[in-house]
Amino acid sequence: MKHLVSVADLTKTEAIRILDTAMQLDQVTEHGAKKLPTLRGRTVVNLFYEDSTRTRLSFELAAKRLSADVITFSAKGSSVSKGESLKDTALTLQAMGADAVIIRHFASGAAHQMAHTGWIKAHIINAGDGTHEHPTQALLDAYTIRRHLAPHRQDFEGLTVGIVGDVLHSRVARSNIGLLSALGAKVIVVGPPTLMPVGVEEWPCEIRYQLDDSLPELDAIMMLRVQQERMNGSFFPSVEEYSREYGLNRIRASRLPDHAVVMHPGPMNRGVEITAEVADGHRSVITEQVANGVIVRMAVLYLLIGGGAHD
Amino acid sequence: MSTHVPASPQQRVVADQSDIARALRRIAHEIVENLKGSTDLVLLGIPSRGVPLAQRIAFNIADIEGTSVPVGSLDVTLFRDDLRIRPAKALARTELPIGGIDGKTVVLVDDVLYSGRTIRAALDALNEFGRPKAVQLAVLVDRGHRELPIRADYVGKNLPTSHVEKVSVEISEIDEFDQVVIRES
Q: Could you give the number of structural domains in chain B?
């Protein structure tokens, strides 16, 4: 594994290895080792062309916990706003000796382009590209599911995960469907037909347009954010109607099995896709997802740039 | 897994099950004698084979002293100085006993002492987890060729070897038998 652009880059073995590594790192951190010397002298660049709080901070913290030097580069206030191309930025980072570049970009395929054009030798980690993928989010979700529902197992055979809402605009959904199904889980995608991407029937998941009947089957339910900033048409009549059909409220949450967990990749629109009561309720593992994000990103960084060159 | 192969030109068994049992028994006696008992003692095995060895030493101490000794596992991979010269290795488990290591006498347990670099990494790792009163080292085999100023406090067997030989400690919890084998590489 040289880059992490898409969950399709990962074999099942590699995905399990990342989750196993995260589990060991969790244990080390829990015992009080907050700062590990592992990536001392390595340079990690956070290259963010799109706004982000938790992903950028999470990667930054993960790299710092492993003692890497971290440079954060956001498009605002950099030479990108003067019109510098992705290629020239990549060449600059190459000249500065970056070992890993974490890229978040509004264009689908930006991370792939960085990884496969030969502009830069660094390992590329996709932190979200357009509506394409967000592989570390899927890994942290898988890690959260493993901790709660399959702590002593490697694969997710027999588990059913529901992904609900705006699948069309969601890179989180794309990455999660790929990863969770590769790990053996059954994935059920639920949402209005207008928010299902073209070709979704080819994906390794079941598609439903109605939430209520699916609830008792789900071991985990992942609520997607309604991405109003990406919506340039009308996809549903009103926010109220969307919440009524697809929002997770107390009554719907009570129809989930007792062991089921409620997830959300953040940032939440409280009152739209999830009510505040459920988001803060006993089934919610939403803040734990954030904590797990740091651990999983530490695992990815360690496995990508912790060792010597192997290619 | 091969069947129990005795001496062959490529492979020499230098300690068998009873040799290993006696060595661990003696190490347990030495630890208790040296520390005048087993209070505030913590055994930390270095994965993978150091962990079951630490458990066996603890079992022996319990037998001698009638007290149970906390045993943990300390993975040193993240602290190694040779990370850059090999692909990233899978991590093993770090599990400190309840009660931690602060103010305790920690005896690190490993199967083979060779360059000393694993133990250096272990000392760095311990530093992150707490401040023991003292740190000592027990190894089943000391094969020489130190690259750092590190020595063991308790040694099961001194085994002078050459660099081209490979020393394997095999123990039944992980391997098929208890034995120490020298192989020509």
A: 1
